[in-house]
Write a structure and sequence with these properties.
The complex is a heterodimer of chains A (398) and B (383). Chain A is α+β, with helices and mostly antiparallel strands. Chain A contains eleven helices and eight strands. The model of chain A has no long low-confidence stretch (mean pLDDT 84). The longest helix of chain B is centred in the last third of the chain and has 36 residues. The chains are: A alpha+beta (398), B mainly alpha (383).
């Protein structure tokens, strides 16, 4: 070993060649990458112009104002063939949101039930829930959509041989028929009574919690809430002479009139989306509940809380912190997966816009760009919401 | 969420209760498991009824009432058989070549089988933790096998006549797309994840944007992007094969998801490993390549298998852009009037369902067992 050369205490560091300077290298790498990306973007733009000229497509969003000229079999807003492509976009977007929102509600309910059933101390029930999760999770969603649409709903009898549930709900190969509420004059009073009842029971709950904090005595709020939310509107309905009628679907000739008709495409998509997502939600719920240490429920039992109260006051609030973030990403997945509607012909955003409108106009860049932008902004909005929630939970934890 | 905790505290001792009678004796655990509370009995009965309503008809349909031999739809009709008819297996037998190979020429199908055999021979030792020569094996599977498989399937070399990709179909397409997706998305995902965690702001911004864009949109829009929009961005004279376009879309999509999987592994590597590598004088690429990534990638094997499961399921979406994988061929087989019987649809779905279920369930069990195997490694204290 050579003895280390003695360093002069205040000599300047030896000069570093520019190509070895870390700052310069970092800058050079990044500028090089940026230049490459920009060059690719420029080439793409040039190619796109050349391709569109070759196929005689005029670019731009002018097509949104031109007449669509095709019908859509389900629309939440008024729509006719003479409306514009822009209107079609809106119709599709609303249909996507409709199936996504109902699907999310159903999937959450089924998912929580299955997830809790999987943890049940009842051996058979836990196995049954486990079997459901494994079966639904391991089959492709498109497979399930097609199964419900072709094999289950497609082989139902025609309207005249409909499957009837108590003579108010009918199921046949043209869809699911449900009774529709019809509001007469004076129905507003009942609605107001309902709103009042809901507000009053929230206030009651708040007051009960305050009182329990002060005195330690719990006030049962369940039955008074039921009275406020259910009984009060019913009494108001009775006083005003039942202005709300129920229109049940009726068979006239070869088809049904009245009631609400859900398209078989909608029913199949909704069933498949909610059953599929429910399996993932069940696993999330299970993991969330398992993440709460056993000592928590034992301590609750030691304090004398019943099983239901333990679940509601001790386990769920803690489990929800773990459950909510992955749950939101499942909601997002469900919304994105609703684009598979195109396989059965439910007119969602993707099917009518990226499907039919793209076919008619050929403006692939604008249409696919817009469709991707819609889904992307939904995703970014949700993940923004999630970051906010996580920050809040983190703050609450201290 | 019940942030308000009751501040009430009981001031007197509760009366002690006698020990529960049911909790004593040597048979107590067994009794508790079988009987439980009255509510539990009700749940047991309900579960048993559901199982009886689902499982028994399924067994009857698939096995007992099923028709096993036959050559045409007539053999699966109730009038001919003279009893309730379950699954019509002759339908599957007749359509099996299509479901497995699509329209791949019959004389060349040995090439598909050979590719499968090669894949299995290379993949199984790679997945078994005890098998030796992991490095060589990985190079053979990820580097040599894709090239060999491509020439075997597509042909175009002496001795192997070319087979156009639009003739490919069925399970072949399902496997080709999911394997290509995984093999190519792995390096892409590693690059993206390194970019996302790098200290260079422009690199990081570009990686994050890329990952979030593909993860934020449904796969079907990506497939449409690749099929209808991508050709606009390429020179006018380029004609890209339909399958290749779909593969590009799948790789971009899967790469973004793979980046997140790899990121999980990278985050699990202790800081000391990075610092140790730097202290040894390794530069960035050698630190990552020799020290960090080998550990991180081992940790994410379960994640990679899970991505593969998702991809295997998602591959069915290509039927929307007119490429007929297993599900697409099944749908095409349904529309054959020569096999239209009341049980054709259920038979077809049962067959494809069994294939998908066995494959995915098997893979997820493998991922689980790997996860258990890897766990002690993570928590072992440094000595």
């Amino acid at each position: 070993m050579k003895p280390a050369p003695a360093l002069a205490p205040d000599s300047a560091p030896p000069p570093v060649a520019l190509r070895n300077n870390p700052k310069f290298r970092a800058l050079a790498w990044q500028l090089g990458l940026l230049a490459l990306v920009l060059w690719f973007g420029w080439q793409f733009a040039l190619n796109a112009r050349a391709n569109m000229q070759a196929q005689q497509i005029t670019g731009g969003f002018g097509f949104l104002a031109s007449t669509a000229g095709f019908g859509v079999n389900q629309s939440l807003i008024s729509y006719s063939e003479s409306d514009s492509y822009g209107r079609v976009f809106l119709v599709g977007l609303l249909n996507t949101l409709l199936v996504a929102v109902i699907g999310i509600v159903l999937a959450t309910i089924i998912g929580f039930l299955i997830g809790i059933a999987r943890l049940s101390s009842n051996w058979l029930l836990a196995r049954l829930a486990g079997g459901y999760v494994e079966l639904t999770r391991n089959l492709p969603l498109l497979f399930q959509i097609l199964f419900w649409y072709l094999a289950v709903l497609g082989t139902l009898p025609g309207p005249r041989q409909s499957i009837s549930v108590w003579g108010v709900i009918y199921l046949n190969n043209r869809g699911l028929l449900l009774p529709a509420p019809v509001a007469g004059s004076g129905a507003g009073y009942a609605a107001a009574a309902f709103a009042f009842g809901a507000a009053a029971s929230i206030a009651l709950r708040y007051w009960a919690a305050q009182r329990q904090m002060r005195t330690g005595r719990a006030v049962p709020v369940l039955w008074s809430s039921v009275a406020l939310i259910v009984v009060l509107p019913v009494v108001v309905l009775w006083v005003t002479g039942f202005p709300i009628g129920i229109e049940t679907p009726e068979l006239r000739g070869f088809n049904f009139v009245g009631g609400i008709r859900l398209l078989p495409e909608f029913v199949a998509l909704l069933l498949a989306l909610s059953l599929y997502t429910a399996a993932f939600i069940a696993e999330i719920v299970r993991a969330g509940i398992l993440a709460v240490p056993r000592g928590q429920s034992e301590a609750a039992a030691a304090l004398g809380l019943r099983r239901g109260l333990t679940l509601r006051l001790i386990i769920l609030p803690q489990a929800l912190r773990v459950i909510v973030p992955p749950l939101t990403s499942q909601y997002l997945n469900l919304t994105k997966n609703s684009s598979l509607a195109i396989a059965v012909g439910y007119p969602d955003l993707f099917a009518v816009f990226a499907g039919t409108v793209l076919n008619q106009t050929g403006q692939a860049i604008e249409i696919i760009g817009m469709t991707m932008a819609v889904y992307l902004s939904l995703s970014l909005f949700t993940s923004g919401l999630m970051n906010w929630y996580n920050a809040r939970i983190g703050a609450a934890r201290g | 969420m019940a942030a308000v905790l009751p501040s009430y505290v009981r001031r007197s001792l509760a009366e002690p209760e006698p020990p529960p009678a049911a909790g004593q004796g040597s048979f107590a655990p067994t009794r508790a498991r079988l009987r439980g509370r009255p509510a539990s009995v009700v749940l047991t009965v309900i579960s048993a009824v559901i199982i009886a309503l689902v499982v028994w008809p399924a067994i009857r349909f698939l096995l007992i009432d099923a028709v096993w031999d036959g050559t045409s739809r007539a053999d699966c009709l109730r009038e001919t058989v003279g009893r309730e008819v379950g699954a019509c297996w002759p339908f599957i037998k007749a359509k099996l070549p299509q479901l497995m190979y699509g329209f791949y020429p019959e004389s060349e199908r040995w090439r598909v089988d050979l590719t499968y055999a090669l894949g299995v021979a290379l993949l199984v030792p790679l997945l078994l933790p005890r098998a030796p020569y992991k490095g060589l094996n990985a190079i053979a599977f990820f580097g040599v096998f894709p090239v060999a498989g491509f020439f075997l399937l597509a042909g175009g070399v002496p001795g192997l006549p070319p087979v156009e990709t639009r003739l490919w179909g069925g399970l072949l397409i399902t496997l080709v797309i999911s394997f290509t997706g995984i093999i190519f998305s792995l390096p892409l995902g590693i690059m993206l994840t390194l970019g996302r965690r790098s200290g260079l702001p422009i690199v990081r911004a570009l990686s994050v944007a890329f990952i979030e864009i593909w993860r934020g949109v449904p796969l079907i829009t990506v497939l449409f992007f690749a099929t209808y929009m991508l050709p606009f961005f390429l020179p006018v004279s380029w004609k890209i094969d339909g399958l290749l376009r779909v593969l590009i879309g799948v790789v971009l999509f899967a790469g973004a998801y793979m980046a997140e999987v790899v990121r999980g592994g990278l985050q699990a590597i202790p800081r000391g490993q990075f610092e140790g590598a730097m202290a040894l004088g390794l530069g960035y690429w050698r630190m990552m390549g020799l020290v960090v990534l080998p550990q991180a990638l081992r940790l994410v094997i379960p994640g990679i298998v899970n991505s593969f499961i998702s991809l295997f399921k998602d591959t069915s979406l290509v039927l929307i852009v007119a490429i007929f994988d297993l599900l697409g061929q099944l749908r095409a087989a349904f529309s054959d009037p020569a096999w239209a019987t009341p049980s054709t649809l259920f038979t077809g779905f049962a067959f494809a369902g069994i294939i998908y279920f066995l494959a995915n369930f098997g893979m997820s069990r493998y991922a689980l067992s790997m996860e258990r195997r890897l766990r002690p490694r993570e928590t072992r204290s440094p000595d």
